[in-house]
Backbone:
């Protein structure tokens, strides 16, 4: 199994932050990023209003930035929505799409997630497509069926070339924000399944991140798995020291 793929650690700030606090957090992350191996890509996905701030503060650093969602529409009468092209204007690299919190609280179906991923790509952003099963689904033995269907909706809407440009994050819903990470073995098993699905689509080297209660003390073991290329980090991304320790674990 090739471990030549780029390692990547992306922070998902969710609905956290304040202008002043962001300055301190971003400064610490940029200043502490030196010892992170050069081959590891680092990013932070922030609330929309902070895109200008992160652009100003991160421009020229090795830390990329992005949004946590984009509209499925290109532009128009969609009050409250934010277009991928708008996000791209702020120098963003990433757009998370299909996070389980959007699926659960905003009724986002996989077809909409696929549209969002396509919008992100056409705006020059890298979509970070999230998939993951609930605890009930896992206990019912439906993990592969659920994450397979979530991924297929996106793959079916794309060419192999487009798929090669996305990032996929496996985030078991029961592990998000709960302090209860999947074991490295559980995560690897699902990653291997997703990798096979991507390979069948002609894109075996897609960056596959694990997310869900990644902390400095479990990151090394998770990231050492053959099909885990890094992480999507929620809570621990709000503390520079923890986020940097996780970035250093992605060797
Ligand atoms: P967590 O969140 O690291 O706080 O579990 C991960 C995510 O939802 O992206």
Residues:
């Amino acid at each position: 199994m090739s471990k030549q793929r780029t390692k990547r650690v992306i922070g998902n700030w969710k609905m956290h932050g304040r202008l002043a606090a962001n300055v301190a957090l971003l400064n610490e992350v940029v200043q502490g990023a030196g010892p992170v191996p050069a081959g590891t890509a680092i990013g932070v996905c922030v609330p929309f209003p902070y895109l200008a701030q992160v652009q100003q503060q991160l421009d020229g650093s090795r830390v990329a930035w992005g949004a946590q969602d984009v509209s499925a529409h290109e532009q128009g009468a969609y009050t409250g929505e934010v277009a991928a092209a708008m996000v791209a204007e702020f120098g963003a690299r990433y757009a998370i799409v299909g996070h389980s919190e959007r699926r659960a609280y905003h009724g986002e179906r996989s077809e909409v997630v696929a549209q969002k991923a396509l919008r992100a790509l056409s705006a020059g952003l890298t979509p970070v497509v999230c998939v993951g099963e609930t605890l009930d689904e896992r206990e019912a033995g439906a993990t592969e069926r659920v994450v397979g269907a979530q991924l297929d909706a996106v793959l079916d809407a794309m060419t192999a070339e487009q798929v090669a440009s996305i990032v996929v994050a496996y985030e078991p819903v029961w592990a998000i924000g709960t302090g209860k990470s999947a074991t490295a073995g559980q995560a690897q098993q699902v990653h291997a399944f997703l990798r096979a699905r991507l390979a069948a689509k002609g894109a075996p080297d897609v960056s596959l991140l694990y997310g869900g209660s990644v902390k400095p003390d479990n990151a090394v073991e998770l990231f050492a798995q053959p099909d885990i290329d890094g992480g999507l980090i929620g809570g621990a991304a709000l503390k520079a020291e923890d986020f940097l320790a996780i970035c250093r674990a992605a060797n």
User: Anything to note?
Assistant: The pocket of 2-phosphoglycolic acid is lined by residues 12, 171, 176-177, 211-214, 232-236 (CB under 6 Å). The mean pLDDT is 96.
